[in-house]
Amino acid sequence: MTGKLYLIPTPLDTECGLSYSQPEAVSDIIVSLRHYVVEELRTARRFIGSLKRGIDIYGLSFEVLNEHTPSEEIEAMLRPALDGFDMGLMSEAGVPAVADPGAELVAAAHRRGIKVVPLVGASSVIMSLMASGLTGQTFTFNGYLPIKDDARRAAIARMERSALADGYSQIFIEAPYRNDKLLETLLKTLSPAARLTVACDITSPREYIRTDTVAGWRKAACPTLHKRPAIFIIGR
To answer: What is the pLDDT of residues 117-173, one digit of tens each?
Structure first.
């Protein structure tokens, strides 16, 4: 009998403690596991230790899966589950497999008939949409936008058309050190009537969430977003 692959959420912000808002049921599952696939080894060990549940960190096995991991190595990481042991997947993105390389491990688990169990935790994408005031009935998560200027402007124009014509809220992200440049481009490119949400540092004491028309954004002082994890949403 194969083990299960648990998708374990981790805190979005660590200043309030690594176990901030961690549901007790999730902690109970973590205590039961001995095999993990993680995006960053140091963060994963610190998080497990922060639960203060008497877990022997050095008795656990870890495999690292990040953007540099060759695809052909991923399926072998599921060997403990195939041997009958439950496993945990952790990412640096809050919830695993959303804008996260762990999605490849989840796909491999389905191919091998391993049960995948998502656990409750904070998702910056969903929390930003919840707080935006834009429609949550129909939305698209676009991930990262193209880096080159022409392709980026084309992507923004495409998302705006979908948001205004079809009513699909358009959610996207950027590398934190390019956030200010992206916001500048959005305010230059979008039509004044479009609504724009900027949400950053979700669950942190520095949390910032604002929705306004582009015309309204242009009249007000913009936040400094440099190196702050942020979500952007275009809507109508």
So the answer is: 999 888 899 999 999 999 999 999 999 999 999 999 999 999 999 999 999 999 999
End position of a domain, from candidates 85, 118, 151: 118
Same domain, residue pair 85 and 175:
no
Q: Are residues 138 and 57 in the same domain?
A: no
User: Do 21 and 91 fall into the same domain?
Assistant: yes
- Bridge pairing between strands 195-200 and 230-235: antiparallel
Distances from the Cα of 204 to the Cα of 18, 22, 48, angstroms? 12, 14, 20
pLDDT digit string, tens, across residues 98-107: 888 999 999 9
Domain that holds residue 218: 124-235
Question: 14: pLDDT confidence band, cut at 50, 70 and 90?
Answer: low
Closest listed residue to residue 59, CA positions, set 91, 81, 17, 31: 31
